[in-house]
Amino acid sequence: MKKYFAATVGTEFEQYVREKNLGIEIDFFCTAENLKGEKYDSCCAEIERLMNDCRISGDDMILHAPFNELHPAAVDEEALLLAKKRMRQSYSVCEKFGIKKMVVHSGYLPFVYFKSWHIDKSVEFWHEFMKGKPGDFTICIENVLEDEPYMIAEMMEKINEERQWPNIGICVDIGHANCMSKEDIHTWIRVLSPYIKHMHIHNNDGEHDLHASFDKGTMNIESVLNFTERICIGDITYTSEVIDCGGGIAWLER
Fold first, then answer.
1. 142: which strand partners?
2. H or E element in which residue 196 lies
3. What pLDDT does 103 receive?
4. Mean pLDDT across the stretch 196-213?
């Protein structure tokens, strides 16, 4: 699997995938509506085109699962059933194209879920979802509204209590962490380092999720990437989620 990926939300991402030999993170199904009917067929056709035109296989693609109104730790059983359905549909896309890594949102809602409840229900949900999945398929649970990394670390500890689940890991979105948390991003990486398998990298002003270029925000991205490479174990992949794809890739090259 390639190390660096361009998200399909980035402008002219395809050009840079071809020129710089990057992988692609598919965001077409972030909106669950695209998982059915003509929209599904259209999205799948576009994935096939990208694979052909960019000369990459499913091994060099990551699928971002839908997240709107989906809560894997939901209290309401009907809401939980919807989350399960959408994750199954997302996995079927991975199977169809040979995609081995899928990013999923944690679904945490502050002031709605107690953290202890969210942890226990998340463990239950992801254990059930990953049962029977092949060993080379990995999910990476992404932080969004979490205000600190310790809850996620405790969730991962509990996921691995009975047996090790090497195919369940964490996607640290450094932009989300920078907006939502007072904890320094280096603290996030240090606390979650045993579980990080993927990262979404972009910058912002510390208040708004701008998906800005790496040199346009309050984080020192060079320091973040160097620290990650030094402290984390295993092979980590990175997706540039910068809206200005060209600016982000040019910065990475420098």
1. 105, 171
2. strand 196-201
3. 98
4. 96
C-alpha closest to that of 97 among 9, 149, 23, 169: 23
Find the DSSP H helices in the chain: 13-20, 37-54, 77-97, 115-130, 150-159, 174-180, 185-192, 221-231, 245-253
Structure confidence at residue 24 (pLDDT): 98
Q: Tell me the percentage of the chain whose pLDDT exceeds 70.
A: 100
Q: What's the mean pLDDT in 27-56?
A: 97
Structure tokens at 69: 């109104």
Which residues make Cβ contacts (< 8 Å) with residue 113, sequence separation at least 6?
73, 75
Helix axes 13-20, 37-54, angle to 10 degrees: 30
The candidate with the shortest Cα–Cα distance to 172, out of 238, 123, 110, is 238
pLDDT tens digits, one per residue of 63-73: 999 999 999 99
Strands 237-240 and 23-26: unpaired
pLDDT at 162: 79
Q: How far apart are CA 254 and CA 242, in angstroms?
A: 16
Which of 28, 24, 1 minimizes the C-alpha distance to 13?
24
Q: For residue 203, give the DSSP letter.
A: B
Question: 84: closest CA among 112, 23, 52, 125?
Answer: 125
Distance CA 224, CA 218 (A): 12
At 162-184, the pLDDT tens digits run 788 999 999 999 999 999 999 99
- Return the bridge partners of 56, or none: none
Q: Are 147 and 109 in contact (CB under 8 A)?
A: no
